[in-house]
Amino acid sequence: MTSARYARHLLLPEVGAAGQRRLAASRVVVMGAGGLGAPVLSYLAAAGVGELTLVDDDTVDLTNLQRQVLFATDDIGRPKAEVAAERLAALNPDVRLSPRRERITEESVAGLVAGADLVVDGTDNFATRYLVNDACVLAGVPLVWASILRFDAQVAVWWAGHGPCYRCVFPRPPEAGQVPSCAEGGVLGALAGTVGAVQATEALKLLMDVGDPLVGRLLVHDALRQTWDAVPVRRDPGCAVCGDAPTIRAPRTEQVTCTVAVDDVPTVSAQEVSALLRDDAVRVVDVRGEAERSIAAIAGSEAVPLEAFRDGSAFALLADDERPLVLVCKSGGRSAEAVRLLLAGTGRAARSLDGGVLAWARDVDPAVPTY
Ligand SMILES: [Zn+2]
């Protein structure tokens, strides 16, 4: 450990040589090397955390580069864990890096968390968050968690024995289709930097045991209004994993996927819709908003946003036409919801374009951009 590298830390009475030694002796596991993982990993490596395990089974995609600042354009197609480890090794050769290119599953998560002083969750889906939470509760390890969507973020430290866990506050995942993923809803790139830096700060504080950790408080950030609120959150004695009579003895995932939601909805393939459109024998209605339609849309489709199906105003718009109806969104989740709402509201059957605009771009019109 070269002291010049950490000179600005050594000047801080709260850190000093003792704090820096604690960091060097620490092992942190970071789940996800994406938008949140990039700042988290960068600052933890720069700070001289002794060992960093980074877990990500994904490869770098062009759409990642708007916020995942560890990666460059030339990295597209390469494994994120591998590229991130290269960048971090160049940043600080003191750090022992363990890139793990693997999925976080019920089987793997306990092994990934074992031996960690602290875990940072930078993943972007509910199924993984529950898994990581359960593994951390069962191992007694603090979990620095965050979630970002559009201009909104939440951050907390979940730590059983010291405060609530994720399941205490969010006992069940939202219904499928209720909360869009970043891929559907979008996210401001810089928000990942803001929030990942807060996670890194909390991680360093916990490792050095300084300050008041974000335990028992849910930090809620609105970047549009530039507000931060700390909402008190409590342990739930009835929590399934950290409560007084826990029922979860091993990490358990909670399924929230679009495929669950679309199972019962009739679908139609992109090729079939293409043939029907040529004969003007179908009405194609896009349920996405204007922002998404401006990126990629099916020629000849019209726009009726999902909100209009939810409030019922879409039904009259669609009543004046006898042609069969096909509803479209990005990948098929929201159009399936619209099909269900239309049937419930009017009794009229429609079909959902299987795979959405992405399938259209793949199977019918490669000139349509994917996003
Ligand atoms: Zn709990």
Automatic annotation (TrEMBL):
InterPro entries associated with the record: Rhodanese-like_dom, Rhodanese-like_dom_sf, ThiF/MoeB/HesA, ThiF_NAD_FAD-bd, Ubiquitin-activating_enz
Domain called Rhodanese: residue spans: 278-369
Keyword Oxidoreductase annotated: no
GO CC list: cytosol
A GO MF label: ATP binding
Keyword Nucleotidyltransferase: yes
A Pfam family the protein falls into: Rhodanese
The entry's keywords: ATP-binding, Nucleotide-binding, Nucleotidyltransferase, Transferase
Gene3D superfamilies membership: NAD(P)-binding Rossmann-like Domain, Rhodanese-like domain
SUPFAM superfamilies, per the entry: Activating enzymes of the ubiquitin-like proteins, Rhodanese/Cell cycle control phosphatase
Protein known as: Adenylyltransferase/sulfurtransferase
Organism in which the protein naturally occurs: Barrientosiimonas humi
